[in-house]
Amino acid sequence: MITVRAPATSANLGSGFDVFGVALDRPADVIRVERADRTSIEVTGVGSQYIPTDPDKNTVGAVVEALEAPAHIQIDKGVRPASGLGSSAASAAGAAVALNELYDRGLSRKELVPIAAEGEAVVSGVAHADNVAPSILGGFTIATADGVTSVDTNIPLVACLPEIAVSTRDARQVVPQTASMQQVVETVGNAATLAVGMCQSDPELVGRGMADPLVTPARAKLITGYEQVAAAAREAGAAGVTVSGAGPSLLAVCPDNNRRAVATAMLEAFADTGVDARAYQTQVSQGATLL
Ligand code: HSE
What residue ranges define each of the domains in the chain, with the CATH number in brackets? Predict the structure, then answer.
């Protein structure tokens, strides 16, 4: 039996829609695999009642198929589904790393990224790699059609998860289909700033580079209290705040290691709008690990 811990992730980071991602040190899924003639899936943990166990409908089914690695797969969910923290990606990433090991396929971590991304297509309709890449490789990742680049970095973060659900499919419906040249120029500048900030482990630059005129304003409307919570985080010292992935979580960058104050401010602001939430004081971390 092989056991892998696959971390939650935050995709987009504002200016890097469908491209940027970071691994978080918590929460995480734990995936156990053992060889079997036919694939079966068992799911426990947070939100497990919403996750299909039919391999054709579960994110790990596509991974099993791509690696030709039938197995009994136990998924212990630590990452809530529909949270914006890469829940389906953590399971797909963990399964890809575990099955590669179990069947001795010898694929590199980078080669496993497109395989795990196929699992994302099952859930959202698009095989985007911006969550599976950091969950497999760790650090800050840039996933494009030409491949994945990753860099280790040290950035303190708060991920605040409200008790509301936003499906990735629904959140993709509100993404604008066109952009003005001014918005494109602004986005390129912000994304470049963010990437430099990651390379230099500079939270101020990362926070500044998260600003996004395109996707985030449209998605913020799906999250009750978004504006109030983002303002509260900034007031408490966050260098930048954005929607984590497709939402509803918010991600805040904390320059002075003031994560506790930012987390408290975000939770109070959600509470003021009548929404229960929980906050993870976290940081950019390593990718999937064999236990
Ligand atoms: N880039 C994806 C999106 C991440 O924002 O739709 C969510 O899976």
Answer: 2-151+286-290 (3.30.230.10), 156-282 (3.30.70.890)
